Fold this sequence. Notes:
CATH topology of the domain at 2-115: Rossmann fold
CATH class of the domain at 2-115: Alpha Beta
Radius of gyration: 23 Å
Shape: globular
Helix content: 25-40%
Strand content: 25-35%
Number of strands: 22
Amino acid sequence: MRVVIVGAGEVGSSIAASLADGHDVVVIDSDASLVDELTYDQDVLAIHGDGTDLDVLREAGIGESDMLIASTDVDETNIVICGTAAVCCDAFTIARVKQPKFLETWEQSQGAFGVDFMVCTDLLAAQAIVGVIGLPTARDVDTFADGLVQMAEFEIPADSPVANQTVSEADRFDSLTFAAIIREDEIVIPGGETTIEPGDEVVVIGSPDDAREFSAAISPEESRPKDVVIVGGSEVGFQVAQLLEQRGFKPRLVERDPERARWLAEQLPGTTVLESDATDQAFLKRERIGEADVLLATLENDQQNLLATLLAKRLGVDRTVSVVDTGAFADLFEAVGVDVAVSPREATAEEITRFTRARRAENVSLIDGDRAEVMEVEIDADSSIAGRSIGEFVSELPRGVVVGAITRGGELITPRGDTVVREGDHVVLFADTAVVDALTAAL
């Protein structure tokens, strides 16, 4: 597939790196230094120019391309780029936007603006944050098969009851599959005797109920949070509050700007909006912020978010989640004490990358950046695995594939070696990135 990406910033370069191995990728940017950097770092063709200019798009070969991804930092520019491309070619267009208003308009008539698929950075970040809150010990969560199947990634702390148990000892859940263990630079496909070590990241696939039960087993003192505090009434903070309200939470939201606080209070009937500076220690103590189960930092910049979360930890907050605008800082945030760092840019790059891959599947989730995938595939009559047992077809694939779950007629089936896959089944599989192409060819 030939892909043109406009925007060589953090999102665009990340998408280019993910697609470069298997596709012909061209990147356009108006910043010559970013173009030079990408030329040396990635196996892509980088062009210096304005992506809204039809001549520049033609120079990039838009007429022969299968997909255009507009990923600059300006929403309106990305929409114009897609509209310009639609004038001269049939390439599938993807636009990245920050403002939900554009997504809401596009959803009223998909294909509006000349955009075939739209990704909203702030909404994705909010969804990632809320997903993590739902499973108190999870680092990543995604759903498949209309919500019947959940994938979750958990880091095992040293004091966890699960640490140093074998998979057989830890697996006390009827519909949960231990798909993989990520241990430093290694992806381990576990067997029953595999020991779960402290610091391991365990990927499980199964029913949402069993995923919650496993989350509780990892850290029994953790439970579904009751008192959630959001620091910062940014667009991400607003979206997080809305999603939490929809899930039955009654969060508290701290916003410094009086007008913004008033607007938030009007829009969020289930949220208590507090007008104050989130770094005011007297206010934090007076409102007992330190007693919160979880604090979410969604302020306007990384420095403020880091300060807010570290201050919350000092006051006694059990769990902190912070938005990190610069993706490279995410590991640093977690190293100094933030429990989970969520990068809107990384979430957007992952969503666009997985969408390009999901064109061969119903749904795809990228694990640990891009080291592995969990994919949902609907089995048709022509599939080579229809009518075959799991043990039979998995034995023919390279090591690194695990069947995590099967849904049939709206019911979840826990896969076993003798389980026969039928036409119409939805199969959720874990696969090391190195064997994904072999897997999709076999399916």
